[in-house]
Design goal:
D-amino Acid Aminotransferase, Chain A, domain 1; globular; 3 domains
């Protein structure tokens, strides 16, 4: 039987409901984890479910071997500032844009609006990206583990996804890195992930005129694998990653 490191999830515990992918994998494969920094641990994951910004404590900032240390701020404003700024001012923009709640995990609050429109507190406003195949929306999800490991191309019926998500998606396929990033773009992407303080999770990408636009950073990723072959890749990626980090 494989031996896995003991994981500390801090400052929040790794919550079972709603189940994150990492919780599911730890549960299924018997990976020991806890939320007590005074107990033994081999690997420290910074962990905050659905909050886009918390004030990090000194333990988070100074402990060794911390995964996703910079994810105490995963706001869309930070994503825009580090990766690519495609924000718009809804009060002066002409045409349509995307209004998104800056909180994580609330896709139901995202919508396409017509501008000019008043700005709402707690929301960000982004350029509308028309990346479609017929009447289906295309999304790329980068599986990241100190570098790009896999990219999943998905086609779905709605722009933001409706719950349960597995009823909204029409197809999935793995695609090569060069389908999304050039060599220089990949190097720049890795550099910006390091600046962000992001090591492990998923990043949502859309293509605009052949260029990748980073839409969202997901350090707490959902458990919905859609298909067994996607689940197998997710499980293998995480288990391999935590073993090589110690």
């Amino acid at each position: 039987m494989d031996k896995y490191p003991v994981i500390l999830f801090w400052p929040e515990p790794n919550k079972a409901v709603p189940k994150s992918r990492i919780y599911r994998i730890c549960d299924e494969y018997g990976v020991e984890f806890h939320n007590n920094p005074k107990k033994h641990y081999d690997l420290h994951f910074f962990w905050s479910y659905c909050l886009n910004h918390i004030n990090p404590d000194m333990f988070t900032l100074t402990d060794s071997n911390v995964i996703n240390r910079g994810c105490w701020d995963i706001s869309k404003e930070k994503v825009n500032a580090i990766f690519n700024d495609f924000s718009v001012d809804p009060e002066t923009h002409i045409g349509i844009c995307v209004e998104k709640a800056d909180k994580q995990g609330v896709h139901g609050l995202h919508r396409v609006i017509k501008c000019p429109a008043p700005r709402k507190e707690g929301y960000v406003y982004q350029r509308y990206i028309d990346d479609m195949d017929g009447n289906l929306y295309i999304k790329y999800r980068v599986y990241y583990a100190d570098g790009i490991e896999h990219i999943l191309k998905s086609k779905k019926k709605s722009i933001f996804g409706t719950y349960p998500f597995n009823t909204d998606y029409v197809s999935h396929e793995w695609v090569g890195v060069r389908k999304v990033f050039t060599e220089n773009e990949q190097a720049d992407f890795d550099r910006k992930c390091a600046i962000f303080g992001f090591n492990y999770g998923d990043i949502d990408v859309m293509m605009e005129n052949g260029k990748p636009i980073i839409v969202d950073v997901n350090n707490i990723v959902s458990s919905e694998p859609f298909t067994q072959w996607i689940k197998d890749v997710q499980d293998k990626q995480f288990l391999s990653y935590i073993q090589r980090k110690i």
